[in-house]
Every structure is written in structure tokens, then in C-alpha cells.
Amino acid sequence: MKSGVSARVAAANALDAVVGDGKSLDWALAQSDEGLALNDRSMMRMLCYGCLRHHWQLRAQLAQLLDRPLKKRDRIIESLLVVGLFQLSDTRVPDHAAVSTTVEATRALRRPKMAGLVNAVLRNFLRKEETHKEPINDEARYNHPQWLLDRLRADWPDDWQQIVAANNAQAPMCLRVNPRFGTAEKYQQTHAIEGALVAGLEQALRLDVPQSVDDLPGFFEGQVSVQDGAAQIAAPWLLADGSGRVLDACAAPGGKTGQLLELMGDEANLTAIDSDENRLTGIRENLTRLGLHATVLAADASNTEEWWDGESFDQILLDAPCSATGVIRRHPDIKLLRRETDIATLATLQERILNSLWPLLRPGGRLLYVTCSVLSEENEAVIRRFLVGQGDAVEDRVLHAYNIRDLMVEKALGFQVLPGTEGLDGFYFVCLKKASE
Amino acid sequence: MSILNILEFPDPRLRRKAVSVELVDDTLRLLIDNMFETMYAAPGIGLAATQVDVHRRLLVADVSTEKDDPWVLINPIILERDGVEVTEEGCLSVPGYYESVERAEQVRVRYMDRNGEEQVSKFEGLLAICVQHEIDHLDGKLFVDYLSEAKRQRIRKRLLKDRKYRQEEQAAAV
């Protein structure tokens, strides 16, 4: 097989798994990665991310180009055509190369009879590219499903366009420098790394160009980790009053766990739990690399009777399961896989976890509730109901570092980092304090 | 409370012009407490928010020997200046250098206190000098700006060299 072709074939297969079968992009990429040269892998990834970011626009264009819809059994060809159109409209792949490799891919996909159709559609698009630019509806214009656009408009009347634009952009790679080795500024100077510091986040360094962790100075010695800057707000906030016995609930993959431990010092007493045994491996690997230790348990945060030893916690970090609508730029498949009905289900789960963890907190202790969602139903609405139900809970609005205020929008309850602000992911934070006895 | 990192000349962030404080709340008061702790620990007699990389119009000062006369000035504006005085000034952001600077002997200043209440005070003596020095910080100005270009460059080079030496020393220790 010619190398350019295999990337297109793999991209079409991965896209088909996400769009057709509802698989996650991470899963689909892992399946398609196999046997691909390194170059082709990055080409495939670029194509998949791009096709999902521009999903609605590309599908609308394709519908206009086809005389009649493709048959169900030709679903894979539809994905291949989308891959072809994306290359022609949004990449620097030369047009002739895009057309020839995509046409060739039909043979590799064992649909040689479709080669003529693929060739005709792509060439037709090139001839009439201008006429296909005008989006036919809001979904195609903003490349988001209508239900999500409706919610973003309702929740963020002034900011929804920033959110949508950020969701469709490429996310930067951000590092967290272990404070035991100094600040991000020092790390940047010492290793002459091209990137930007973020005011308010002393340990964060946003790289100008993403790179493999293998090339990051000190990565394997635990000097530095990969973590978005917004996610780095949580640990110092939770530990602003000092640390005691700390619980990190829903901890996988352990980014915040590592950061908590980096800040807690050698006497750290941290329990990290996650309900998914398989994902605990990620936490353990992370901690081994950092040379730090925590009690890591497979445990369900919404069912504490099964595992809690009865000794209360001074601080709890709850990074709750959520729609992940704040990190769409890193996971564009969320736009396709998430259904509107999921949101209410998630909100119920979030509230259940909050209520079940609250008794584990000592009087006077603090719980930081975090989601990577931008939807108020999972954020403020959950907290409002929680506060009504728990008489001994109040919000603590004191921010430990003044500059992080500029990164966040103040809500009636809690604070929201909007995706794209200072290059950050979208995160919601609210700090809850338990009344002293 | 915690001790904050003080930026050092010639860090470009010391040149940023601070914007007004909009809200005097507990988050701001925590910053104020941390600034006092940082200033007393340094030790210094005045500290502007700019020096701790918060670009808001806020300064703290305490020129008393007993360290029992803390002042907080939020969004300060100098209404009047009177007289001329030359003092040897130093700065936490320009460690180790003391130079003569000419300033007003007395100033009348409008500002908000830590409760957000508007005040007008007349400062004289060392406190007047200190307040002027800190307000300069909020405008991105340093006391070395009052010196000759040659002198300023000499200080700049020395401080960069000191810092490089300190970093190498730290790196060797790790």
C-alpha cells in the first residue's frame, strides 16, 4: 500500500467507528493506529480531528454534492468522502494529492466500484468550491449539534460564540512544572522552551508547539507533567488553608492527584479513588513517575459505605463525571456522542456523588467541586440544589491567588473558566465549606 | 497566609500599568494580608501589587519601627504635592541598591481602605516618600528610572548576573 493512502483509509475507518457506531475517538484511533508508520499516524489523527471539528459543515457539503444519499452499506465511503472534502477545504494537502489518495483508498477499502463516484464528487467540489461555502443552517455554520448550541446560547448569551470558536480550534499543549523543582518560569528559562506563562498559574507553561513527552526535559524524572492550565487551578485552591487528610474523588487519570501530592509535601496523606479499576493503572503510573505516594483505591464515590473507614477528610476534591463540554477542542467526538438527555442523567449523578461525599468531610473542612462542563445544569444548578439539601454547607468565595480571578467568569455560585480564555480548557469550580460544629 | 514571589528588575512585568481594583472583597483582603506578610518577611516598608505580579492599583506600607502601623491604599490618587525632599531609596525589586531620589515632601492622597471606604489622607516624612515610590510601581515606574541611563544599565547588568549565578547555584543543589 502506498503510504499516503493508508492514512486516509485509517482515518475513514476511525471516523466511521465514531460517527456510525458511536465509539469514542480515542478508542477508534487506537484501533486504527496499528501497523501505521509514525508519519501516517499523525496524518490520520489530523484528518480525524479535523473531520469531527467540521462535521456538520462537511456533511452538509457532501449532501449537496451527491445526487442521492449513499446506501447504508456504503457508510464507509461516506466517511472517506468527508475525509476527502476536509483535505480539499481545510488543509495544505495539495488538491491533486488529496483526490488521488482518497480515490485510491476506495480500493484499499475493497470498494473499487466506488472509485468513480469518489473521484467525481471531489472534482465537482473543487470546481464549485465557492458555491458550497455558505452554510445551510446553524449546525453547519457553527459545527455543533443544535441542542448544544441552544444550551450554550441560553447559558452564555454574551460568550457562546467564543465558546463555539474555541471548541472548534486546536488545543495547545500545556505543562505543569512540579513546584519542588521551581516555577514554570524557571523551567522555561533553564531549558529555553518556547511557550507562554499564564498570570495566576505559577506552574503552568503553554507550549507554542506541541511535542512528545519523550522530548520534554525532566519528564521521566517527574519534573514536569502534561496538564491543561485550567485543571491546575484546582489543587492549590483546595489546599489554600493547608492540607490534612485529603480525598481525591473520581481521580483518574490522576493529573490532579499528582499535583495535590506535589503541593502537599512529604507528610502527604492522600486517598485517591476511582470506580474504574482499569483507570487506576493510569494514576499509579503517574505517581510512580513523579516519585510520590498516595492510597489508590477502586471505589465508588456515590456509594461510600462500601469503602470508607469512618475517618473524616479535611479536604475533598470532587472532579465529577460530566459532559466534558468544556474540553470539546481536545475531544471533538463529544459533539457527536453526547445526547441532550445525558445532561440530566449526569446532573443527577453529580448531585448523588456530592451528597454521598459530604458526610465524609469534617466540620470546617472544604470540598472543591470541579467539572469540565460549561453547562449550568451540571454546575450551578447542581450546587444550588445541594446547598438547599445540606444545611451545613456554604460557598467559600475567597480565591487563594488574586490573578486567577481574571481567568474566570464569576457566577452566582462558583466560577467558570471559559474554553479559549488564555488558551485554557473550560472548567467550573465551586468551593464548599462545611460549618464548624 | 503565604509569602508571594517578588518580581525583580529588569522583569518586564514591573513595567505593566496596573488597572483599578473593582471590588474590595475577601479575595482582595487575602491578597492584602499576603502582601503584608511578604513585605514584613522581606523585610521592606512598602510593597505595590505590581511587585507580586498582580496588576491592580493597590499598595501596602508600614514605615514604623515596631511594625504596628499598617497602611492599605487601594486605587490611590495623589491630589496635592508639597515641598521637595531628597532621600536614599531602595526597592525590594532592585535588591542591594540605594540611590538618592527627589520627591515631594508631603502628599495628599485619595484612596480606598481595606473595607472599600473612601479616604483622604495627608502623608509626610518617610511614609510620604514610600507612598510615592509605590504609586510609581502601579504606573510601571521604578526608582532607577530617576537615575542616569549609565547607572541604570549598570544596575541592570549586575542584577541579571546575580540572578544567573543564583540559578546556577540552585541548579547545582538539585
Q: Provide mean pLDDT of chain A, rounded.
A: 94
- In terms of DSSP E residues, the strand content of chain B is 15-25%
> What is the architecture of the largest domain in chain A at the second tier of CATH?
3-Layer(aba) Sandwich
How far the N terminus sits from the C terminus of chain B, by CA atoms, comes to 27 Å
Largest interface here, residues on each chain? A-B, 15 and 16 residues
The count of helical stretches of chain B stands at: 3
Low-confidence stretches of chain B: none
Helix content of chain B: 25-40%
Gyration radius of chain B, rounded: 16 Å
Q: How much of the sequence of chain A is in beta strands?
A: 15-25%
Uncertain spans of chain A, ≥5 residues at pLDDT below 50?
none
Tell me about the biggest sheet of chain A? 9 strands, mixed
**Mean of residue pLDDT values of chain B:** 94
Q: Topology as H/E string of chain B?
A: HEEEEEEEHH
Q: Largest sheet of chain B, described in full?
A: 5 strands, antiparallel
Order of helices and strands of chain A: HHHHHHHHHHEHEEEHEHEHEEHHEHEEEE
Q: Which overall shape of chain B is indicated by the principal axes computed on the Cα atoms? A: globular
CATH class descriptor name of the largest domain in chain A: Alpha Beta
Number of helices of chain A: 17
The number of distinct β-strands of chain B equals 7
Kindly describe this structure.
- The complex is a heterodimer of chains A (437) and B (174).
- Helices cover 43% and strands 15% of the residues of chain A.
- Chain A is α/β, with parallel strands linked by helices and 437 residues long.
- Chain A has three domains: 5-142, Orthogonal Bundle (N-utilizing Substance Protein B Homolog, Chain A); 174-226, Alpha-Beta Plaits, CATH 3.30.70; 231-434, Rossmann fold (3-Layer(aba) Sandwich), CATH 3.40.50.150.
- In chain A, helix 14 (277-290) links the parallel strand 6 and strand 7 (295-298).
- In chain A, helix 1 (3-19) runs antiparallel to helix 2 and helix 1 (3-19) crosses helix 6 (95-108).
- With 174 residues, chain B is an alpha+beta fold.
- Chain B has helices at 26-41, 125-138, 149-173, and strands at residues 46-48, 58-61, 71-82, 85-89, 99-103, 106-112, 118-124.
- The chains are: A alpha/beta (437), B alpha+beta (174).
- Chain A binds chain B through residues 181-183, 186, 189-190, 199, 202, 397-400, 402-403, 405, and chain B through 5, 25-28, 30-31, 49, 53-56, 167, 170-171, 174.
